[in-house]
From TrEMBL:
GO molecular function term, any single one: beta-glucosidase activity
Annotated protein name in UniProt: CBM6 domain-containing protein
Pfam families tied to this protein: CBM_6, Cellulase, Por_Secre_tail
Keywords: Glycosidase, Hydrolase, Signal
CBM6 domain sequence ranges: 441-568, 684-807
């Protein structure tokens, strides 16, 4: 008997453990196996509760009860009930849930309306008692069955509590003519009873992920009212269910946790929502602090209604901080922001327009037809599927690449709206791409097309019937681009037809394969209208067989709509061998010449080429075929280039031939596209706020001469970095404009290039008597020409800086040039140090001497790696005497 009783307890314990599902463990959410679970979910808004904006009825029927009241008047109560019955039946089915599982989500958040489970308090036969309706429970039961089959967690969300919990009426179907949740004890009691009923029914269900007690409360409650109701609901739930997580949202749209700490339950998660803010750590620091202070997990319970870029940014932020998330919504009428869009129809829109007072009253039959069409179109098979939205939420946070949106084959037609899947800067580049209005306090439309996809790319519809899928890229701006993964079936020459429309002239799209120009200069003229699409034909362009990335770059001084590009195998004779274009390389010291045919394998010499920079001839150090692409010639220069330089290249010769045995045509003064990054020019004045990166500093307006801004709030360890170009080696005056109220500051300037860093000056800054009382401090330094990152490091705090300036005074002597062409590192050293030579010097002799000039050690120069071992040398300060083929000099060397 005892054995049986022990076995009974064991079985009960096993069942309880199995039914436990998710629970909290410190700052983590874990499953019944003790494995951490990061929730990746979808919110099922619109199924049990229809907010007006999701029905496209904002301004006509913002809340569900208004929508129902107006439908009753228009088509009658029976037809309205039929509409809602069909809506609930078709909106979400097993096929929807199967898709959620297939795409990689692991949870759903069901936005519930209480009135599917229990009637409002005014409709109860006996005041204070609760009648239970089967509709809501049956919907949850069926959904849970699908979730269990797919191992998807179901989180129950009280989106519309009895009476409504928020002044933003649409969210919770609040009716201001009736008492809210907060104004009625009966509503509070009904809410508690409903949660108790749900907990009793689902207490043993492993795939119930938890209970989200109240969605987005927005009501002036003080610090105790919300907590009091939460505790009462918690007690009711725990009467039946001690296993499932309680998700607790703050007031004011989930984000004000005043009065809601510390936690009152051991299996509780704080849930916040995030919309339309920057996706940086600062935007969620407040809730990270909440987690750290109270040792509870976080869940971002609702976000969305933005662009794909914003989605990927936000999910990256959440997952980097170990926060699960749920995206909103799964589907709604006529949208691009969710995985599915429900098609609208003219007869449905006539209803909405009538309610807005913008159209005549539709007939009952037409209204019923429009509503029936809407409910038929709720089915997944009738929805528009936005795979780009799913990709932005599931793949892109883990994979910073672009993948095909559709298969593109050359020859063939490529619809330009079918660019690759990926985020801004990866698959495409668009100027406006997300809504950050709650951070900027200004709404700026991130899209001007609102069609076909949810990226920043502006896609519009058209009626063109030639090489069109009904969409085109519009509102194009210079330097925007799109990428397409393509498969070229055969190596050879191709013609292509670019389909475009514009009222302007001067558009110059550029076409690249694997980032290399293959079309040369293309200029677009006006077509007479933004909808008047025509072809711009480009002939005889070389393409190699295989998989490539086609890139189309918007350039020129005009905007244009572009819809497609069709590639056709050329039947023309092989074209003459010409230069297509030339451009700078990222190393800022070379340029590439792009040819229209591949080159024969041959050695190139410098002599046939000439490069001029601002009309002055530059020394060429080498010319060679690019080993990665035999349509490219790379010209290396002796000196660095500047982003404002005008660069031209010429070729006079007959020795360079293509694989088609055609000699390259001569060209003179071919303008090189200067694509170099912006750098600050030295000699010159640099405004302190023009940094490329910084840490710990802030900017503010200055009253100094010239106005503008200064940097301030300096603390030791802060820094600012500036990308600079030093045009000439020499001696420089370094002038700094600073202000300090009471503390003397101290800074250091460093130059970095190719992982080598050198200090060029350490400066003490004066006390000026005020934060806007400015003085100029001067010192001297020596600089070598080239490109660098200049770092201003704060060593001692307490100053503002407006600007600093490098004034050229005189050139370096030959000895100085040699000396500054040698780097010794690390210095101080322990056992080994390195000598790095510039200016093509060769070391002839090395000596270690003491500070009195006495010889300590002769060192044999090494030509292999420039590393020297002096582990046997005693710690101290020495002189390193270096003799090269270009001169001799000494440098201080410190042995630790």
């Amino acid at each position: 008997m005892i054995k049986k009783y022990v076995m009974y307890l064991f079985l009960i314990g096993a069942i309880s453990l199995n039914a436990q599902g998710l629970r909290t463990l410190g700052k983590k959410i874990i499953n019944s196996k003790g494995e951490e679970v990061l929730l990746k979910g979808i919110g099922l808004g619109g199924w049990m509760l229809q907010e007006g904006y999701m029905m496209n009825s904002s301004g006509a029927a913002d809340t569900q009860h208004e929508f129902i009241e107006k439908l009753n008047l228009l088509i009658g109560e029976e037809e309205t009930k039929t509409f809602y019955s069909n809506w609930r039946k078709n909106f979400f089915q097993k096929q929807d849930l199967d898709s959620i599982k297939k795409w990689g989500y692991n949870s759903v958040r069901l936005a519930m309306h209480y009135n599917l489970f229990t009637p409002p308090i005014e409709a109860e036969p006996i005041q204070g008692e609760n009648t239970w309706l089967e509709t809501g429970f049956e919907m949850v039961d069926e959904l849970l069955t699908w979730c269990e089959a797919n191992e998807i967690y179901l989180i129950l969300d009280m989106h519309a509590a009895p009476g409504g919990q928020g002044q933003d009426a649409a969210i919770s179907d609040y009716d201001s003519d009736k008492p809210s949740l907060w104004e009625s004890e009966l509503n509070k009691s009904k809410t508690m009873a409903l949660w108790g009923k749900l907990a009793e029914r689902y207490k043993d269900k492993e795939w119930i992920g938890g209970y989200d007690l109240l969605n987005e409360v927005n009501w002036p409650l003080g610090d105790s009212v919300l907590r009091d109701l939460y505790v009462r609901i918690t007690n009711e739930i725990r009467t039946y269910d001690s296993n499932h997580i309680l998700f607790i949202e703050g007031n004011w749209f989930a984000n004000d946790f005043s009065g809601l700490t510390p936690p009152w339950d051991s299996n509780m998660v704080y849930s916040f929502h995030k919309y339309w803010t920057y996706n940086d750590t600062a935007s969620i620091q407040w809730v990270l602090d909440l987690r750290n202070q109270h040792n509870v997990p976080l869940w971002m319970g609702e976000s969305g209604e933005n662009s794909n870029v914003w989605y990927t940014e936000a999910i990256n932020l959440f997952e980097d901080n170990n926060i699960g998330w749920s995206w909103w919504p799964w589907k709604r009428i006529a949208t691009t922001v969710s995985p599915f869009s429900i098609n609208s129809n003219p007869k449905y829109e006539a209803i909405i327009n009538y309610w807005k007072g913008e159209a005549a009253k539709p007939s009952v039959l037409d209204a019923i037809d429009g509503l029936k069409q809407i409910t038929d179109d709720l089915l997944v098979d009738n929805n528009k599927y936005y795979k780009d939205v799913v990709d932005a939420c599931i793949r892109q946070p883990q994979d910073e690449t672009h993948i095909p949106y559709k298969n593109h084959t050359i020859p063939g037609v490529i619809y330009l709206s079918d660019y690759d899947l990926g985020t801004n800067g990866i698959a495409y580049n668009d100027i406006d791409y997300a809504n950050y209005s709650l951070s900027t306090n200004e709404y700026k439309a991130w899209n001007s097309g609102w069609n076909y996809r949810n990226d920043g790319v502006d896609i519009q519809t058209n009626t063109d019937n030639t090489n069109s899928n009904g969409y085109h890229i519009g509102f194009t701006q210079k330097n925007e681009w799109l990428k397409y993964t393509v498969n070229v079936e055969e190596t050879g020459f191709y013609n292509f037809k670019f389909r475009y429309a514009t009222e302007q002239s001067g558009g110059k799209p550029k076409f690249f394969l694997d980032e290399v120009d293959f079309a040369g200069d293309v200029t677009l003229g006006s077509t007479g209208g933004w909808s008047n699409f025509v072809f711009q034909t480009v002939s005889n362009k070389y393409m190699e067989a295989g998989k490539h990335i086609l890139k189309i770059l918007v350039d020129g001084n005009a905007s244009y709509n572009m819809s497609s590009i069709e590639f056709l195998k050329s039947t023309e004779t092989i074209p003459s061998f010409n230069v297509l274009s030339a451009s700078t390389n990222d190393d800022e010291k070379s340029l590439k010449i792009v040819l229209n045919q591949p080159l024969n394998n041959q050695e190139l010499t410098n002599n046939p080429f000439e490069v001029t920079v601002n009309n002055a001839t530059r020394t060429i150090t080498s010319a060679a075929i690019d080993p990665s692409n035999n349509r490219l010639i790379v010209i290396e220069l002796a000196k660095y280039l500047f982003y404002q330089d005008e660069i031209k290249v010429s070729y006079i010769g007959n020795s360079i031939t293509s694989t088609y045995n055609v000699a390259l045509s001569n060209f003179q003064n071919k303008l090189v596209n200067n694509n170099l990054i912006t750098r600050l020019l030295i000699p010159g004045k640099i405004q302190a706020e023009d940094f490329s990166t910084q840490q710990g500093l802030e900017t503010e307006n200055t009253t100094d001469t010239g106005a503008g801004q200064n940097i301030g709030y300096t603390d030791a360890g802060d820094y600012a970095e500036y990308l600079i170009y030093i045009s000439e080696s020499g001696y420089y005056n370094l002038n700094l404009r600073t202000a300090a109220e009471s503390s003397a500051g101290k800074i250091e300037f460093e130059l970095s290039h190719n992982e080598v860093t050198q200090s060029i000056s350490t400066i003490d800054l004066p006390v000026t008597g005020g934060w806007q009382s400015w003085q100029t401090t001067a010192t001297q330094t020596t600089l070598n020409e080239g490109i660098y990152t200049l770092k201003m490091k704060v060593l001692q705090s307490g100053f503002n800086m407006n600007w600093f300036e490098f004034e050229f005074t005189s050139s370096l002597s030959t000895e100085d040039v040699i000396k500054n062409g040698v780097k010794i590192f690390p210095n101080p050293f322990t056992d080994n140090f390195n000598i790095k030579l510039n200016n093509q010097q060769i070391i002839k002799d090395l000596k270690i001497m003491d500070l009195n000039g006495r010889l300590i050690k002769n060192i044999h120069p090494t030509e292999s790696n420039g590393v020297y071992n002096l582990s046997s040398l005693k710690s101290g300060v020495y002189l390193l005497s270096i003799e090269t083929d270009k001169g001799s000099f000494q440098k201080k060397l410190i042995k630790d």
